[in-house]
């Protein structure tokens, strides 16, 4: 590249691909999966129905969703030898590090995923196994974080109930079909299911573009999501709210810190690369937060702090000028905590929700036979230099 062009690093304005999966309008705050609004899907659909929609492009018929769920439930068991990996992690190791490692290891147990030129059926079987085993792996990571024995999946349950059974089943058998838990888990997973070419999805696509297997591509996406500027923000939000609570709850003081250029503190859960209006998901999750905490009889003091922070920030010139609004991560952690998840598990739950979107985007890239991703750069380094012998340095 010659001459000088102003380059916005961080893929800030790069059209990386063509995709028919998710439509996002950041100015209007619009989010649609295959043309269906996130508001209607969150209200009327289930996570598995949305997964089918994202991956295969259409809302399933009754028979299609029954077959889909049946196939998935019969692949929820992970190879027993994987427990040796679980047991190998130190008890304090971060769940996202465990998740990325365990998902990547799936190709060792299911080597058909490594076959070149897979048929559509073979690709689809790997997709089913990825969806099925993710919920088991996530729930087993949760159990391990408490040193509890794992709970095995039961084919009689649908996806979300099976996840609740494997995660909280030692409480009561009814927990798997508790309407409040089933409804809020479906809603949260739907709201996280896809989001166009975000950091982790772009990672899944570029790793997959080298013809890398699905498990390793998803594992790469998990690593990208871990960062506190991306999916890791839901954990960082709760840690921030706890810090403000323990500091006496003075939200004005922390808003001032977030505006101070000399202070590295940022209001976690606020701002977005694309949304310059309210993140539509944040609106739905905020309402769900009130509903669920009331139904569960949970009174979490950080919810009041979150609402106060939002109210103060939305009137503050600094945030208004920069169009900084609450994003998907601002309220989600409060619900996860009310359900009984430890903070370190929040981003793992984000990954569980995002999985169908990552799979759909990876599949679309393969179906469209996209070439290997290989961006260019603006070179800013030294021009040619002769080698200097050690004595001359
Ligand atoms: C997700 O891309 C996706 O779709 C992601 C996601 C998905 O579903 O996949 O939506 C999920 O990752 C949501 C975002 C979660 N992250 C956070 O909540 C972390 C806190 N937010 C920020 O770090 C930030 O807003 C980003 C990373 C989300 C976006 O950063 P950008 O677009 O690169 O914006 P920027 O860093 O260029 O900031 C622009 C201005 C700067 O100030 P000035 O230089 O103009 O003076 O806004 C300021 C920033 O300092 N700013 C903030 C801020 N976010 C931006 N100031 C205080 N607090 C914040 N949170």
UniProtKB/TrEMBL annotation:
One of its GO terms (molecular function) is citrate synthase activity. Pathway: Carbohydrate metabolism; tricarboxylic acid cycle; isocitrate from oxaloacetate: step 1/2. SUPFAM superfamilies: Citrate synthase. GO terms for biological process: tricarboxylic acid cycle. It catalyses: oxaloacetate + acetyl-CoA + H2O = citrate + CoA + H(+). Gene3D superfamilies: 2.20.28.60, Citrate Synthase, domain 1, Cytochrome P450-Terp, domain 2. The active site is at residues 272, 329. GO terms for cellular component: cytoplasm. Pfam families: Citrate_synt. Keywords: Acyltransferase, Transferase, Tricarboxylic acid cycle. InterPro entries: Citrate_synth-like_lrg_a-sub, Citrate_synth-like_sm_a-sub, Citrate_synthase, Citrate_synthase_AS, Citrate_synthase_bac-typ, Citrate_synthase_sf, Citrate_synthase_typ-I. PROSITE patterns: CITRATE_SYNTHASE. Belongs to the citrate synthase family. This is Citrate synthase.
């Amino acid at each position: 590249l010659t001459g000088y062009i102003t380059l916005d690093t961080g893929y800030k304005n790069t059209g990386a691909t063509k995709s028919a999966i998710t439509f996002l309008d950041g100015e209007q705050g619009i989010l649609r999966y295959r043309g269906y609004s996130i508001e209607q899907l969150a209200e009327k659909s289930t996570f598995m129905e949305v997964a089918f929609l994202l991956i295969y492009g259409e809302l399933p018929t009754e028979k299609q969703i029954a077959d889909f769920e049946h196939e998935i439930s019969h692949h929820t068991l992970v190879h027993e030898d994987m427990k040796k990996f679980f047991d190998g992690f130190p008890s304090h190791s971060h769940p996202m590090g465990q998740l990325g490692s365990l998902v990547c290891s799936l190709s060792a147990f299911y080597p058909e995923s490594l076959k070149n030129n897979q048929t559509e059926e073979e690709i689809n079987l790997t997709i089913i196994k990825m969806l099925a085993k993710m919920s088991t792996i996530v729930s087993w990571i949760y159990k391990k974080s408490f040193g509890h024995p794992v709970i095995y999946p039961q084919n009689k349950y649908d996806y979300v109930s099976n996840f609740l059974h494997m995660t909280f089943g030692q409480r009561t058998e009814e927990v798997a079909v508790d309407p409040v838990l089933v409804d809020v888990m479906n809603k949260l997973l739907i709201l996280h299911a896809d989001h166009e070419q975000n950091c982790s999805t772009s990672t899944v696509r570029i790793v997959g573009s080298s013809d890398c297997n699905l498990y390793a591509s998803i594992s790469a996406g998990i690593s990208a999501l871990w960062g506190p500027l991306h999916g890791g923000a839901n954990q960082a939000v709760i840690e921030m709210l706890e810090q403000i609570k323990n500091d006496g709850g003075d939200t004005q003081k922390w808003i001032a810190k977030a505006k101070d250029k000399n202070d590295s503190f940022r209001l976690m859960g606020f701002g977005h690369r694309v949304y310059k209006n309210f993140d539509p998901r944040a609106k739905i999750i905020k309402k769900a937060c009130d509903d669920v905490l009331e139904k569960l009889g949970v009174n979490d003091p950080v919810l009041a702090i979150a609402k106060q922070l939002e109210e103060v920030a939305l009137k503050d010139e600094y945030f208004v000028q920069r169009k900084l609004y609450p994003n998907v991560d601002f309220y989600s952690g409060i619900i996860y905590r009310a359900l009984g998840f430890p903070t370190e598990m929040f981003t793992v739950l984000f990954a569980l929700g995002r999985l169908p979107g990552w799979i759909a985007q990876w599949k679309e890239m393969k179906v469209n036979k996209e070439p290997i991703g290989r961006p260019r750069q603006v070179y800013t380094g030294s021009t040619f230099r002769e080698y200097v012998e050690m004595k001359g340095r």
